[in-house]
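Please review this one.

:::
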Amino acid sequence: MAATPAPPTAPPKPTWDPRRPEPPFPWLRPTIRIRLTLLYGGMFLIAGILLLSIIYLLAAQAINTGNEPPYEIVSGDNIRVSSASCPQIGTGDIDQFKQAVASCIDSQRQVALDNLLSRSLLALLGLAVIAFAFGYAMAGRVLSPLGRITRTARTVAGSDLSRRIELDGPDDEFKELADTFDDMLERLQRAFTAQQRFVGNASHELRTPLAINRTLLEVSLSDPGAPAELQQLGKTLLATNERSEQLVEGLLLLARSDNQIVERKAVDLAEVASRAVDQVLAEADAKGVTIRGERAPAVVQGNGVLLERIALNLVQNAVRYNMPEDGWVEVTTELQHGQAVLVVSNTGPIVPAYEIDNLFEPFRRLRTERTGSDKGVGLGLSIARSVARAHGGHIHAVPREGGGLVMRVTLPI
């Protein structure tokens, strides 16, 4: 038995796109750090406003106690008063003088309260800025383990399952979360390694006997003296063997394409779609299906073989499940809103909208013309969706008015 092939190093596909660009103003995001900063600063600001209000009220009560001055003028002889802040003092009789003094004292009290309020507000504003900055720094320090966990998760999703957080520090909630995450990564790595080993073994164990059967059948069919019944039986078995080989290849490709694509190269979707059309052209001519459509350049970063498999599966399905006569398939590529788009439209039987999701499930077909079909093994659309996800894109299908489908594949450039 041949040696077990080494498993590939590609990690499982992440649930988010690690290459997603950062927002133009990341500090405006309502992160936990920003919310904690607003919470700390807001609590300080509210406490400062309450304290300032209490101080202001107490000061106002203290300086307003007793509206009368602490003296009394009993005689107006030889009294001369001058005041720059209260110029009305110094004129008139004693009663007018008393009123002027009382008015001046009230004015000075108000000036003192206003000065107290304005200076206290400036002090509160300065302290609030310091409090917000201190709260932001403290929130960052408190949440630094969470940031480390997030960075490790992104690294694991993008390239390496062997990475671990290994968080040091006190045995708090963050330490417990990091240890739990490390344990989960350990189990995922073991499961993924076992899956890779199984795929590698299956690719050998399943392909070898099928290849041997095909060779034996071809040798038997090459005998010109074989009876006609044996020739017919050999052709039937050869077709069954070929179908089994397609099933095995499809299952292996489906298992591998679930992984994120690590090595990427520039691939033009227009070229990929044209090559897929060339491969299906003979079958389309035999069925009387016309293939048309303009394919504009649309370069993406990905695996050319897998992307060609997407186009080939979609075009093959569009040709095979088409109208009995006068059918057509339209294959177009273009760039839209910073993304590369491949659209495959075709005529064909009417597809209920509630059946669309079933088309992408393995071994699932429509209950109409696809049931019992010997054209494939029911994995084409499943493989196409898996490959699209591995490239950070998605595939969407909608029923076409009048029958048929419109398959739209969107990939990031």
In short: The domain at 265-412 is CATH 3.30.565.10 (Heat Shock Protein 90). Residues 1-21, 368-374 have pLDDT under 50 and may be disordered. The radius of gyration is 40 Å. The longest strand covers residues 327-336.
